[in-house]
Specification:
Blueprint lengths: L8 H4 L12 H12 L6 E5 L6 H13 L7 E5 L6 H15 L9 E6 L6 H13 L4 E7 L7 H4 L2 E5 L5 H15 L2 E2 L1 H11 L3 H14 L2 E2 L1 H8 L4 H12 L3 H15 L3 H12 L6 H19 L4 H20 L1
Helix pairs in contact: 4-5, 7-9, 8-9, 8-10, 9-10, 11-12, 11-13, 11-15, 13-14, 14-15
Length: about 325
Amino acid sequence: MSEESAVMWVEKYRPKTLDEVVNHKQIIESLKGFLKNPLTMPHLLFAGPPGNGKTTVALCLARHLLGENWRNYTLELNASDERGIQMVRERIKNFTRHLMGSMANVPYGLVILDESDQMTAEAQTALRRIMEANSRTSRFILICNYSGKIIEPIQSRCAIFRFSPLKREDVIGYLHRIAKNEGVNLTDSGAEAIIEQCGGDLRRAINTLQAASTISKTVDKKVVLQVVGRAGAEEVRSLLEKALKGDFLKAREMLYELMVTYGLSGSDIIRQIHREIFNLNLPQKTQIELANLIGEYDFRLVEGANEDIQLSALLAQLTRFGLQKSS
């Protein structure tokens, strides 16, 4: 791997302009409308699941509005680190005051507040007043996963844009472009495995690809599952089938093999077993009973019970359940 590609790929391949952003065409067109007359742009609230481009769009917008020296007129904060009223009173208030005497060829400064749904109620209450009092010299871009955690007075001061998860084909295309540039052979099975584990979270997908590439230059399904610490669906399904057919010892042997091979915890195994129960060709009533059984053992692990004993007990219960159904 080259020295250049040792930089995190998320930052390296982050779009620099709005035109480079994957998907979200309607949102991008709306924001471009504000660029025609920047003074008409209100405060903005970007909401949606993680890893789908909210922060990237905010940074691209800052570059378009403020030019090459955009960093001099942009305050970027992560509210999950500094989420109290002190952050609002000191850093944000001081920044907006500083702008009054330093603006040259820019319409206003930008305050990008990431993870804003993590702010305390007191901090949000203080923030709404600052947003209103400094609207002449600054605009706020609030970024969050859950807009319902933002108080109504702030929401009413913002134009709200809701970001949906990225489309499957867009994520796969982006991953293949990165793999080609970095000299990594990303197979179709590897791309599908990344999508299955990461869904529409492009940031997580890129990080998974980079981690997998450090293990092998050919990134296939096996390498991806090894990186993310997940067993293959087929292997978990085979384990369940063995247990439900009454072969407890073989199922237990397969369980420990999975835990050693993929480094899985008891909770990881139970989550995957729960997912695969609904992929087995079983009557709905049986699936309900098994889901209830699995929930009981998940609760025991959360309460601190021994993983080895509880997983063996779960397999024993599944084996007994299978034997009862077949008799």
